[in-house]
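Minimal example, chain plus geranylgeranyl diphosphate.
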Amino acid sequence: MHQPNDHLSRYLAGQAAWIEGLISDDLQAVGDTELLDLLRHALLAGGKRVRPMLVLAASSLVGCSRPQERAAVRGLALAVEYLHVASLLHDDVIDNAEQRRGRPAANTLWGRSRVILAGDYLHARAMTLAGTAAGAEAIAILGQAISRMVEAEFLQHRMAAGRLRSTDAYLQVVEGKTAALIAAACELGALAGGGGASERTALRRYGSKLGIAFQVVDDLLDYLGDPDTTGKQVGNDFAEGKMTLPLLLAMQRASPEEQAHIGRLLDQRGERQAFADMQRLVERLDGFARARQQAAAMIDHALAALAPFADSAEKAALTGLARYVLERQR
Ligand code: GRG
């Protein structure tokens, strides 16, 4: 399996332990034991903790010293992870997912209603933490990100139902469902660290481009990933009729016969063989290679947004993270 480079690995591992400590402390306020079990399952399950790490690194980049000890940085790091996990819980209910991070999805263990409620709990707690940490501005940044996530889910449903086939619509979905929260994490780090308007804009831009690339790679992994490494089966997007970038790019190059073949495979999308055939067709039509190129172009934009910042360990971490996004296998 491809690992992030050593420096980045150590940085991420250190931050993961930090955020897990914060989560465990914060969960002590949960009174209901069933809710607590569900939240522990969802929150302490080996996520990569990319979003809180971005809050921390962005705050350091704008000059905040010892950010891990700052109440505002801690509150915002928790808030973005909680919103991320709330969105995963709701998404798994929407998609009827069976697995998440190599384990049974919470909805298979607790049922749909409790999982929706647990997502609402995390949503509420995240907003309380954000408001306490950094006031109305932080709430507005997160509120806007959540609105965009929900709108993107609606658009994604329309794409799957009507087979809307444009890469523009795909990018709009990706900007909303993934990049909005990642951009918000970066901007909130800059806010908590005392950054000025131009620093906030630059970090938001880095986060947005990183987030788009992150989702494109996620969508590539849905076709090409190793289930033992990713913790989920391949072919979920195809089975759900989600039109992701590799397929959309392949369709641009397909002959009328190949278009018809793709249409038939989409009609048979519940069958395993249809997915294997689609993988081969997308490969032949260069869909995977071209999607990867687009992700790489996004990463170039993300790195360009970091150019105004002086070299530092945090800048190296953010640069390393951007490169790792392209190489990640999980
Ligand atoms: C309740 C806040 C809230 C939102 C509801 C359902 C919904 C709106 C949005 C769904 C958005 C969604 C599931 C986007 C996918 C984003 C994505 C790439 C998730 C995987 O992130 P990783 O790889 O996960 O960082 P880990 O497991 O490492 O934490």
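The first strand starts at residue 99 and ends at 100. The mean pLDDT is 94.
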